[in-house]
Specification:
- It is built from 4 helices and 15 strands.
- With about 200 residues, the chain is mainly β.
- The strands form 2 sheets. Strands 2, 3, 4, 5, 6, 7, 8, 9 and 10 form a 9-stranded mixed β-sheet that branches. Strands 1-14-11-13-12-15 form a 6-stranded mixed barrel.
Length: about 200
C-alpha cells in the first residue's frame, strides 16, 4: 500500500447541540456560515465562544456546524494544560466519562459536566477510497509523514462513509511535532509494522 492522503490540521473547536446554542446565543438562534469545510455539509461558523477551565481560559474558540445531538469540545493536549483539565484521547462522539468546561457566549453560559476530548487522529475516506486503499471502516493503520521532521503516526483510525472526502485529521500538537500543514501529503502504511507497542 503506497497511496498519499492530504492533511487536515484540526485546531481547537466545538460542536453544539441546538439547546446549548440557544442558551449561549439566544432563543431560535442559527449558526452563520463563515466557510465550508472539506467534509460534505460541514462548516466553520462565524460564531466563537470562550472555554473556561479550573486554571485558565481559551478565547475565540470556533464553532463548527451544523448542530449535533450532543455538545462536544475538541482540544489539544496543550490546551488541556492551559484549561487545567485532563481530556482523554477519544473518537468523536465518545464523550462519556470526559471532563467538562464552562462555555461562555454573548447571551449566557453553560457549565458542562462532560464533553471535552482530544480527538483521535483519523482518516476520512469515501467508500471508493476505501476500496482503492483496501481498508475498511474502523481499521487501524499507520501514517508516514515526510520532510525534516518525518514521523510515523500509529493508531490512525479509518472512517468510511459515502459522503466523506479523503482527509487525514490530526490536531495542532501532532501537526507541529511533525512539521505538517494543511494539504501536505502523508502515506498510509500497512497496519503490521512490527514495531514495539
Amino acid at each position: 500500500m503506497n497511496f498519499s492522503i492530504p492533511v487536515g490540521v484540526s485546531n481547537r473547536h466545538l460542536h453544539l447541540s441546538q439547546s446549548h446554542l440557544e442558551i449561549l446565543f439566544g432563543q431560535g438562534y442559527s449558526l452563520k456560515i463563515l466557510k465550508d469545510l472539506t467534509q460534505t455539509g460541514q462548516f466553520a461558523a462565524k460564531e466563537t465562544l470562550t472555554l473556561q477551565g479550573p486554571k485558565g481560559d481559551l478565547a475565540k474558540v470556533r464553532i463548527l456546524g451544523p448542530v449535533r445531538p450532543d455538545t462536544q469540545i475538541e482540544i489539544s493536549m496543550t490546551d488541556s494544560f492551559k484549561l487545567g483539565i485532563k481530556a482523554p484521547v477519544r473518537d468523536s462522539g465518545q464523550i462519556e466519562n470526559t471532563p467538562g468546561v464552562t462555555l461562555i457566549g454573548p447571551a449566557g453560559s453553560i457549565a458542562l459536566e462532560k464533553g471535552v476530548i482530544i480527538a483521535s487522529r483519523h482518516i476520512h475516506m469515501h467508500t471508493s477510497d476505501a476500496e482503492k486503499f483496501q481498508v475498511s471502516n474502523g481499521q487501524v493503520v499507520a501514517i508516514a509523514t515526510h520532510g525534516p521532521r518525518a514521523v510515523i503516526f500509529r493508531n490512525v483510525v479509518i472512517r468510511v462513509r459515502h459522503d466523506f472526502v479523503l482527509d487525514f485529521h490530526l490536531d495542532t500538537d501532532e501537526a507541529n511535532a511533525a512539521g505538517l500543514s494543511n494539504c501536505d501529503l502523508v502515506t498510509v502504511l500497512s497496519e503490521e509494522l512490527n514495531l514495539p507497542k
